[in-house]
Amino acid sequence: MCAPVAAEMKDSTVNGADNKDDMLTASFQATQLFTDDGRQREFTPAAAARAMPGLREQRKTRQFCDVLFRATNGPEVWAHRFVMCAKYSSCYTLFAIAKETMAPEQRKEVGCPPVRALIEDLEGDMIELLVDFAYLIPMHERIGTHNIVRVLELAEKLKLIQVRDHCMKTLKQNLEPENCIQTYHLASSSGYEYLAGEAHRYLVRSFDAVGVYFHSLYRVAYERDRNETRFSETTVKKKKHAGMKKTTRKHYLAKFLPLVRFVRCSVTEFEKVLSYPEVQRDQSSLKVLTVIHKTLTRPSMEVGNVAGIDLSQKQWLRPRIPKDILFVFGGWTSGATNSMHTFNSRAQKWRVMGSQYTPPRAYHGAAVIDSRIYIVGGFNGRECYHSVVCFDVPLARWSAKANMEYARCYVSVAVLQASAEHKPQGGNIYAMGGFDGRSRTKTVERYDIKANQWSLVADMVEVRSDASAASAHGRIYIAGGFTGAAVLDSVESYDPSTNAWTRIVTMSSPRSGAKVVAHEDMLYIIGGYNGVTRLSSMEQLDVKRARTTELPSMLQAKSNFAAIVLDGCIYTIGGFDGITTIQLVEKYDIAARGWYTAPQISTNCSASTACVVEDIADPSKCFVNAEAYNHLLCINLLGSFVDIAVRQPLTTLVAQKGVLNFTHSPARA
C-alpha cells in the first residue's frame, strides 16, 4: 500500500462530508490512487447497471460522499470511496489512512471519516474524468473525441488498462476523414497495432474523402506501401487531388507518383497522367514518370534515385494485394472435393490453396460473417450432410459448429445482418430447403452464431431444392428450385419481423441450379436449368417494385456454378454445361452492363460455393502456395489440440516453404 505524502486531521466537532474542516487531508501522487490492477473487485455489469444511476444522482448532491479529490488547480470532485475502490484498487489507501487516524475503539465502527485527497501531478479536469469513469460515464460524452488523446496518454502513464481500452474503442468508433490519419500515426507510434489497422482500413475505404488531407496522406501511403504493398488502389482518377491546394501538394506529387500501380493502366490512362498541368509544370514529376514509362515496357530495367526519390523498388510494376478476397470451396469434379481457391482481382490470378482439413462437399451453401466462412450442409457422394464447418480466414483454421436439424444438400443459404448498415459483422445464417437423400423440403433453419445453435423458423411456401437465395432490404429472397416434379419460376421473400414467407414475383423462366447475388439492393438471377436446357439468361429483380428486368446473357449457358460480386462485377465460376463440368470464369461489369471472360479456375468444377471476405488484416496469407498452406493448416491442427510453445519456430518453417509476407503465427488466439 502506498502511504500518503502528508496527512493531517482537522479539529471539528461537526460531522458530515459537507463540513470540509472535518476532513482528513492527504497528498498523493496519481500512481498512488489511480491503478486498476485489482479489477476483480469491480462491480459486475448487471450490478453496476442497477446501482450507478442512483449513485450518480447522490454524487450530484454530495449525499453519502466521503472523499474529495482536488488538484493544485481545478474544481473539487466529490465521490464515494467504495465506488472508487471498485474501479481503482489503490484507492483502498483512502480507507487505510482514515483508519490510522481513528482511536482503537473507533476502528471497530463501520464508518470512516471523510478524506480530502490532494493530487499533486494531475490537472483538475483529468481527475474529474477518472472519477466519472468510475461511475460509468463514457469519456467522449465529457470531453469529445478531440481530447481523447490526452486521456489515452494518461492511461498509459498510470497503466489504466480499462481506460486505455475505452479510449481506443472511442477512437475507433469515431473515425472520420479528418482524424483517421492522426489516429493512425498515434496508434502506430504507440504500438497499438489493432487501432492502427482499423484506422488504415478506414482510410482505404474512404480514400476520396481522406485524400483532401494530402500532406498527411502521403506519410501513411509511403510508409505502408514500402513495407506491405497493401495501400488502397490509387487509380488515375485520384490525380484529381493534384489540383487541390496546389501549393501544398506540389511538394508531394513526385513522391506520390511511384506509389501508383501503373502496371494496371492502359497507355491512354498513362498519357492522361502526363497531360495534367500540375505534372507538366513539375520537372521532378516529369522525370519520375519518364522512368516509370520506360520500365513498363522494360520491367528488368534497373533504376535508382530520380529527382531525389528512390525508385529502385519499382512498386508501380506490382499489382497490390487486394483487401477483399474471393474464396471458392469444394464442389464436384469426378467426385466431391475439399479444395480451396482464392482469386486476386488486382492481378487477375487464381491461387490453389489445396485440400482442406475438412470433409469433401458439393451442393453445399456458404456464408461469411466476421471474416469467417461458414460451410453448410452438402453431399460427399454417399450421404447428405447436416454438419456445418467454419473457416476462420485470419487464423487459417477450421472448426466444427452445431449441426442443423435436417441434412441438406442442394441447400440455399443467406445471411441477414444484425446491423442497420448491412456491414459484414454479426447476423444470422439461414439454411433453406434442400434434399436429405430421400425427399425435398421447404423447411428453414436459422443459425445463431453467438449461441452456436440452430432453430426452425417458418416454412417456405413451396418445396425447393437446388434454389438460390440472397438478402436485400432486411429480407431474404429465394428464387427457383426443384420440387421433385417440376422446376420453379417463383420468387419468395422472408420477413424476419413477421416470421413469414410471401410469394412476390414470377421469373421470366423456370430455373433450377441458378444463382442469385445481391448488389446495391438489387438482385441478379443468373443461368440455371429450365427442365429442358441450360440457360445463359440473366434478369434483375428490383425488390422494392417487385419487378424483373432482362439483362445481357452470359457467354455460355450453364447451371450449378458459383457466383459472387467483387469490385462491382459479378463473377460466375465453373458449373455444368449439360455435358460436362467446366472451368470457365465469366465477369459481368454491372456499370458497363457487359460480360467478359476472366482467368479460368485451375480445375473443372460444378456445385462449388464462392464468397468474398472483406477487409482481411493480412491478405497475403490468402495467396500462398498449396504446399505452404498445408504446412500452415498442420500447425493450426496441432495448435487446436495442444498449446505448443514452439509455434513461432513452426511458423518460420512455414515461411521458408513459401508463405508471402508471413509475419506472425495465425495459430495464436
From TrEMBL:
UniProt keyword annotation of Repeat present: yes
Pathway(s) it belongs to: Protein modification; protein ubiquitination
Molecular function in Gene Ontology: actin binding
Keywords assigned by UniProt, alphabetized: Actin-binding, Kelch repeat, Repeat, Ubl conjugation pathway
Keyword Hydrolase carried by entry: no
Protein name: Kelch-like protein diablo
Residue span, BTB domain: 65-135
Database matches in Pfam families: Beta-prop_ATRN-LZTR1, BTB, Kelch_1
Chain ranges passing through the membrane: none
Superkingdom of this protein's organism: Eukaryota
Role this protein plays: Probable substrate-specific adapter of an E3 ubiquitin-protein ligase complex which mediates the ubiquitination and subsequent proteasomal degradation of target proteins. May have a role in synapse differentiation and growth.
